[in-house]
């Protein structure tokens, strides 16, 4: 049995999945950054540099999603992954 997959749909699906995973990693990095700030393990200069880096990272990811028309695909993957994790762990992950 042959499966007919359109190249554009495959590209959007794979890119959507990759960017959703990148967003999840970004969220984890932000959480870790907040913990480090709250623990006082970062000085003011490091906090400033980290904040700027995370903002630039966000800008680049959003630009990639927009340029490739995968914003909805990423949102769909994130929602599906969030629902899966919520089902396994319980709790609400939509507070992102």
UniProtKB/TrEMBL annotation:
Keywords: Gas vesicle. Its main location: other. One of its GO terms (biological process) is gas vesicle organization. GO terms for cellular component: gas vesicle. It is found in: Gas vesicle. Belongs to the gas vesicle GvpK family. This is Gas vesicle protein K.
